[in-house]
Amino acid sequence: MGIPLSISSDLELDLEDIIGQCIAILGIRGSGKSNTAGVIFEELLRNNYPLSIIDIDGEYFGLKEKYEVLVVGRGEGVEIEVDENCAQEIAQISMEKNVPVVVDLSGFLSDERTAFLQEYLTALWNLAGKLRHPYIIGIEEAHEFIPQGVKTELKELIARVALRGRKRGLGAIVISQRSAKVDKDVLSQAGMLFLHRVVHEVDMRVYSELLPWRKAETKEIVTALSTGECVYLNGDNVIPIYVRERETFHAGFTPSLEVVVTPELKQVSQAIIEAIEHAKVGKGKKTRIDQLEEQLAHLESEAMKKDETIARLEGIARTLGYIKVEVPKPSYPDVQNISKAIVHSVEHPGAAKNTSPSYSIRRVARRGRDSSPSTSLGVIDINPLAVPAPVASADESASLPDAVMRHIERIVGRAARKSILHRRILGFVLGHAPISYSADQIAAWTNCARGVIDNDPPRDFLDMGLMVRERRSGKMHYHSSLKDFVSREFGLYQPDIAHSDLHRIMDLLRARLVELAQQ
Ligand SMILES: Nc1ncnc2c1ncn2[C@@H]1O[C@H](COP(=O)(O)OP(=O)(O)OP(=O)(O)O)[C@@H](O)[C@H]1O
Ligand SMILES: [Mg+2]
Q: Quick check: bond before 434 cis, omega within 30?
């Protein structure tokens, strides 16, 4: 006789049925997927079944209300903040010591998430090969990591667990609101499915392929499902069921007017916390050395830049020796304001009354066929960083969801920690989007020496996906990829986000990042 799991009064399921299983939980937003996953996790935890939950929205820390679960990562309910440097140790502690772990990735940027998961899942896979005892990995928003039709290292890792984990006792629970976007191979290998309500035709098509009913029948049954109801599918067993409500706090509940009190949470043993803190410190030391090396490289590049600037200024000083400038005496003493006003009226004809806060003086350039700035002759920029800063209106952020604003701050915070050279390059490229500029052109406009950008390219921002680099006619060119970046980073928080909101996020983020270039 097996150990029964209490998931639904309509369903008889034993713990043994779960071992090495690939389980898919699908359905539209708010259909009850995370609740169903939470119920399965509760049942597993009640039976001391070891597991990891990859939590994108910080929804699962509430499991600690009843069970000893370790919550790591970066987010609201996290006990120990960690990054990918500790991923291996955490995987090891979880699998070897049977410690259930929630990996809260809600505070990570997408590249950090990928780095963490790659380390973490590789470690779990390898350990499972040695230990061969039951273990399950739950993955929220699985379409982000195992997208249909796209090949990534992380996808291969997760697909491997889903398709070949059984022999190692390794199972997977993939949860997604985008049925059609989840890798078909993984879905077809899922031995157990909880199919919540869907409405879109593309998702309905996926359900039709999975369910043994006629198309019209599938549509009729599936669209009639209400929150918490789903079609359970396991081989020949196909039944509509109602999944019970989670016993533990569900941080992803749909907000209502009732006051929500975060429950008291259990702690995993102090020894485990200490073991991770210890691993973290060890990694921290390594990171410190890396940091110092980075700092040294940065200072060297700054010193080089300064030498180049001195040489350039000496050149300008020599040139100025040949130029005679006659300035008519102003009728009042505020010379600076007058020059600002003149520049502004040249740059903004018809707006002569306003002065521009950031200004540049240029001799009108003769332009070749290529009208990019470095081909213009005789350009002298007094403030070459005065990129056409996008105007972010004061209410740009109004009504953007808190999660979105927090994520914007995270991105800006991360960018602010990068070197000034890289921030300038980013500011220039974003401020001049969508045009692509060569490294030399950017160097000229951001007041740094030729070659500096080639020696110290803005790898961090390229890796983040804020800009793109490509070789053209033997030279490196850079252009903004802010649009793709924003759709990727923010689509996750609001998959149904409106186009206009994405534009507002883009404008706001561009303004903030351009501002960083001028600090
Ligand atoms: N079986 C259930 N019984 C009662 N309430 C439920 C049940 N399932 C879900 N709910 C409630 O419905 C709301 C949405 O549920 P849930 O967060 O699980 O949906 P979801 O499909 O995961 O949504 P999303 O795609 O936005 O993550 C929550 O407030 C949850 O508490
Ligand atoms: Mg959910």
A: yes
The top-scoring range by mean pLDDT among 228-232, 387-391, 395-399, 402-406 is 228-232
In the chain, the domains with their CATH numbers are 4-251+266-281 (3.40.50.300), 377-517 (1.10.10)
Please give the DSSP secondary-structure letter assigned to residue 168. G
- Phi and psi torsions of 514, nearest 5°: -65, -40
Which of 143, 248, 254 is the pocket-test mutation for ligand 1 (most atoms within 8 Å of CB)? 254
Interior/surface letters 54-85, b for 16+ CB within 10 angstroms, e for the rest: bbbbbbbbbbbbbbbbbbbbbbebbbbebbbb
Non-local (6+) Cβ contacts of 98 within 8 A are 48, 50
What is the number of the ligand closest to the CA of 254? 1
**Who contacts 197 (Cβ-Cβ below 8 Å, separation ≥6)?**
27, 28, 31, 222, 223, 225, 226, 227, 229, 230
pLDDT in tens, 454-510: 889 999 999 999 999 999 888 899 999 999 999 888 876 666 677 788 889 999 999
Q: Say if ligand 1 is within 6 A of residue 88 CB.
A: no
| CA distance linking residue 464 with residue 109, whole number of Å | 8
| Cut 0.70: pTM above it | no
Helix (H) or strand (E) holding 73: strand 70-73
Nearest ligand 1 atom to the CA of 140 is 27
**pLDDT tens column, 71-106:** 999 988 898 999 888 899 999 999 999 999 999 999
At 298, the pLDDT band (50, 70, 90 cuts) reads confident
The crossing angle, in degrees rounded to 10, of helices 402-416 and 420-431 is 130
CA distances (Å), origin 254, targets 35, 250, 458: 11, 9, 41
The amino acid at residue 398 is: A
Give the position of tokens 């390229």: 462
Ligand 1: does its nearest atom lie under 6 Å from the Cβ of 495?
no
Find the range with the poorest average confidence among 275-289, 379-393, 473-487.
379-393
Query: What pLDDT score was predicted for residue 75?
Result: 85
Crossing angle between the packed helical segments 402-416 and 499-517, to the nearest 10 degrees:
30
With contact defined as beta carbons under 8 Å apart, do 105 and 75 qualify? Answer: yes
Q: Give me the residues near ligand 2 (ion), CB cutoff below 5 Å.
A: 34
Q: How far is the CA of 332 from the centre of ligand 1 (A)?
A: 70
pLDDT of residue 381: 40
Ligand 1 geometric centre to CA of 38 (Å): 10
Out of 7, 25, 35, give the residue to mutate to test ligand 1, the one with the largest number of ligand atoms within 8 Å of its CB.
Answer: 35
